[in-house]
Amino acid sequence: MYIIFLAASGTWRDVLIVNPIIPVQVGECVIQRFTKCRGVNLDSVLLIRADFRGADLSGANLTNAILYRADLRNASLRDANIIGTRFINADLRGVDFHGAIIGNGTCRHYECLSEKWKIVYRLQNSTAEFIYENLGISLSGQDFGHANLRGANLRYADLRGANLRGSDLRGADLGGAVLKGMKIDDDTQLDEKWRNVWTLVNGHTYDFHGLNDLSEANLRGTEIHGIDLNGFDLSRAILSDVGLSSAELQYSDLTGADLTGADLTGADLTGADLSDSILRNTDLRGATLADTVLDHADLRGSVLDQQSEISDRWRLVWSLVNSVFVDETLEIPSDVNLSFAFLEQVNLIGYDLAGANLTGANLTGANLFGTDLTGTRLHGANFDGSGLKKVELSGGYWIGADLTGALLYGANLANADLAGYDFTQSHLSGANLSGAILIGAHLTGVDLTGANLSDTVLHGAELSNAYLYGANLTRANLKKASLERANLSGVNLSWASLQDAVFTDVNLSGSDLSDADLSGSNLRSSDLSGANLSGANLDADLRWVNFRDSTIDVDTFLKPKWRLLREILNDSTVVLDYASMDLSEAYLVGVDFTEKIMTNVDLSRSDLRSSNLSGANLSGANLSNANLESADLTGVNLTGANLTGAYLYRTNLYESDLTGVVIQPVQLTCCSAFKNDVLSSK
After folding, report:
1. Residues near 660 by Cβ (< 8 Å), separated by ≥ 6?
2. Nearest to 226 by CA among 251, 208, 254, 245
3. How far apart are CA 381 and CA 346, in angstroms?
4. Which of 214, 278, 448, 576 is the most exposed place for a label (fewest CB within 10 A)?
5. What are the beta bridge partners of residue 76?
6. Where are the alpha helices (DSSP H) in 424-559?
7. The dihedral of CA 186, 187, 190, 192: what is its sign?
8. 3-state SS string for 547-586
9. How many angstroms separate the CA atoms of 524 and 543, rounded?
């Protein structure tokens, strides 16, 4: 007997079916095997022993439905809403849950979905790594029998002891997965590649059937001594602690493979590609490495002996990496080829590598203190975090080299072509960069204290927040360079080309800018106090520039307004009557304007912090948006003055005439002194 209960318009009705083969119509859907009921609404329906084998229920609404002992083998529930659906004793073998909405439905007496199928659901919709890391669920020993895991992402999954008998794993990604101990049978559908891997790791007799793809296979700890893997693809395979003694690996692809601790004694690796592989603590005694590619291979801790056949080039790399030679006077041929060598954290102090080929070498964290790299080919080499203190680098070929974070204290980079290089987080204090080409280079925040940058081409370079205290930039080309907030105090910029450069908020105090060309540059808010500006071209944006104690001469180009402001800043007595003058956007911090005639003067947006204006006549003056923090305006005549937006924090306005002046409380910020009280913005 086949009974179907379903909800319709808020009432219950049931259908009694004597023969279960007879199809039953629910709305527009006819329930039967292999039916297509996409998007059907089965909300809150009770189905007992319904036969949905192979049915397409994708997108169906099964919210709060009860499928008691329903047969859903190989059915599709893709994108279906199964929130609260109770699969009581239902057969869910092979069900496709991709995209299904499972939610946290309330299933009081029964689980909506058993733990097994919940994990299958998660594997179909996420990754094994996600399940382990975010849900803390181990996959080892789990029961996935007859599950639909077709195309599932099982990368690096630990499937030891997991039951996958009768499961569909076709197209599943098992890269790096642990298959040792995984339980399968003849009904398990598994791609031939991963069946071969399973066969190897579980010690069964193997027959690769002409397939040679073992890429990304996890063979960790497997004993396969003497195996013939000639020409096999083992790229990115996990081969740590694998027993491969006397193995045949001629012309195999082992790029990126992890061979940590592997036994390769007597193995034949002729012509094999081991680029980017990890050979840490690998036993290579007696191994044949003739014509083997070892570009960027990590040889730290690996073992060679006299019987190991390896080129002089790679034996030297192995020797350097493993500090076999402790004598710092070791002679290395001037034309030595160390290209693409893995030399991370290697101690190369004092070595003579002049003229050597280090193209593409990995020198991350290496110590090259005092090393001679004159004329060395360094295209694409990685010096990230390496110590290059007092290293000789002049004349090197640097195209594409990575100098991010390199320690280049006192290094000699004279005349080097470093256009476009990224020196972020590098340290170049005391370095010699004279004549170097640094067009468009990134030197943000770099320490260049005392560096020699004379005649250096820094056109368009990024030097914001750089520290250049005491550096020599004589005749340097800094056209269109960005130096925002850089510290250039005490810098020698004489005869430098600084056209259209950005110096916003730059500290240039005490610097030598004699005969420098700053035309078109942006010097807003920069500090030029004590700077030598003799002969300089200052046809630039000089708003809020501090000219105090700076030096100019008859050859200095300075527009009349800024020349006057410089004079006022250094000696306010040079002008007796400021009436109607344009002193807008000027740096006038601490200037003494006591009792000066300043009627109708334009001081808009000027910086007048701590200035003394007591007793001055500022009637009709424009002080809009001026900064008057801590300024003394005692007894000032401000009749009709414009104080719109002026900053009056701690400004003393005692006994000032404010007739016609409007001051908003917000301008006072905290406190400004008036005649009889203290006004507050509160």
Report:
1. 639, 640, 641
2. 245
3. 14
4. 576
5. 56, 96
6. none
7. positive
8. CCCCECCCCCECCHHHHHHHHHHHCHHHCCECCCCECCCC
9. 5
CB 145 within 8 A of CB 163: yes
pLDDT tens-place string over residues 61-71: 988 888 889 89
HSE-CB at 173 with a 13 A cutoff on CA atoms is 12
Q: Is the pLDDT of residue 108 over 70?
A: no
- Is the pLDDT at 116 greater than 80? The verdict is yes
Six-digit token pair at 268?
């034949």
Specify the amino acid at residue 247.
A
**Residue 666: both structure tokens together:** 């917000």
Could you tell me what percentage of the chain is helix, strand and coil, using 3-state DSSP and rounding each to the nearest 5?
10, 20, 70
**Segment among 2-16, 327-341, 484-498 with least mean pLDDT:** 2-16
Cβ count within 10 A of residue 192? 12
Residue 669 to residue 48: CA distance in whole angstroms: 76
Average of pLDDT values for 481-506?
95
pTM of the model: 0.73
Contacting residues for 63 by C-beta, under 8 A, at least 6 apart: 43, 44, 81, 82, 83, 84, 85, 105
Q: How far is CA 150 from CA 73, 171, 191, 262, in A?
A: 15, 6, 10, 33
- Look at residues 456, 411, 424 and name the one whose alpha carbon lies nearest to residue 438: 456
Instruction: Name all contacts of 262-265 with Cβ < 8 Å and 24+ positions apart.
Output: 263/225
Are 522 and 501 in contact by the 8 Å Cβ rule? The answer is yes
**Contact, 139 vs 159, CB < 8 A?**
yes
Answer whether 388's CB lies under 8 Å from 407's CB: yes
Q: What is the dihedral of CA 254, 232, 166, 80, to 10 degrees?
A: 60
CA 179 to CA 171: how far, in whole Å? 16
- Per-residue tokens: 528: 């030029």
Run of H or E residues at 313: helix 312-321
Q: With bands split at pLDDT 50, 70 and 90, how would you rate the model's confidence at 681?
A: very low
Nearest to 137 by CA among 149, 113, 151, 121: 121
For the record, the structure tokens of 69 come out as 């002992």
Residue 81 to residue 100: CA distance in whole angstroms: 6
pLDDT band of residue 349 (cuts 50, 70, 90) is confident
For the chain, percent of residues with pLDDT exceeding 90: 61
Specify which of 39-53, 149-163, 375-389, 408-422 reaches the highest per-range mean pLDDT: 149-163
Confidence band of 43 (pLDDT split at 50, 70, 90): confident
Helix axes 128-135, 115-125, angle to 10 degrees: 120
> Mean pLDDT in the chain?
87
- Tens of pLDDT, residue by residue over 541-584, are 999 999 999 999 999 999 999 999 999 999 888 888 999 999 99
Name the DSSP class of 78: T
Taking the C-alpha atoms of residue 573 and residue 576, their distance in angstroms, rounded to an integer, is: 6
Residues 15 and 227: their CA atoms lie apart, in Å, by: 65
